[in-house]
Description:
It contains twelve helices and eleven strands. By secondary structure, the chain is α/β, with parallel strands linked by helices. It has a single domain, classed as 3-Layer(aba) Sandwich (Deoxyhypusine Synthase). The strands form three sheets. Strands 7-2-1-9-10-11 form a six-stranded parallel sheet, sandwiched between helices. A three-stranded antiparallel sheet has the order 3-5-4. A hairpin with a 2-residue loop joins strand 4 and strand 5.
Amino acid sequence: MRIEQTKVNQMNIKKDMKVSELMEEFENCGVLGSGRVARASDLLAAMINEEDMHIFMSMAGPQVPGGMRNIIAYMIKHEYINVLVTSGANITHDLLESFGGRHYRDFGDDDEKLNKAGIGRIADVYTQNDDFEIFETEINKIFDKLSKKLDNPKDKGIISINTLLHEIGLIIDDENSILHQAAIHNVDIFAPGIVDSMLGLQLWMFTQDHNLILDVVKDMHHFSDLVFESSEIGGIFLGGGVPKHYTMASTLLKGGLDAAIQITMDRPETGSLSGAPLEEAKSWSKAKCGSNLANVVGDATIIFPLIFAAALDKIQ
Length: 316
């Protein structure tokens, strides 16, 4: 049996070339990681250009501390994504910057010395305890406003996570904030693991003497509506964990994803969802048979800006 083969074209790099031109070199080469990155970039542009496709994006890991905040806010502002599912930690760090805090670049310092200096480390990113003290003060002011707003017989202090994040986004005044852009552009944000974060800790402490109750199941009512309202569903998965599975499992209601991109550092051998290739989702009907899928192994803070920058030249 003869298998049709396409020759590998060696990559050419030139001075002042555009990112999209580099991606063309990746595509023409078409092997190993470069080919996968090029296919993911083409698929990203195709998903965004598909008028009937609603794009659900999930974001796990320290994407905001890792510098991805403005990119996600930009995508929301330009309506390139319709739904964002993320960790409570990324929401926390988005708010930290909205409240005047910062993330700092450095590496190599002794962690015990950092502890004494009031600095927390996320790989090569540093945060200051003082910024979290401001975060605590500001988020409690917002919780207090929301608690008073919900203090009526109708609401009984109960609010969904999605609505909580929307209300917070309306209150904060920061054009670069993911939460704020989502609130003003009516892009839904879900954070099913919100309690596992500094934001969740502050919420728990606030509820000790205030009437503010999260209804997690209520989110699923709204999320399922969004799935059913979508003619086609595209997925962008940065990392794995709870955000990835929450997004994928919900698409079961519509027969699974029509197209998706995954960027992860996790491995498939352990059987965890985080490292599972998207093709595995077909066996669970979380991705449709015949769906267009692209898997890239690597750091999302490197690869996603690259594929998105190249895709921008192809987005109509």
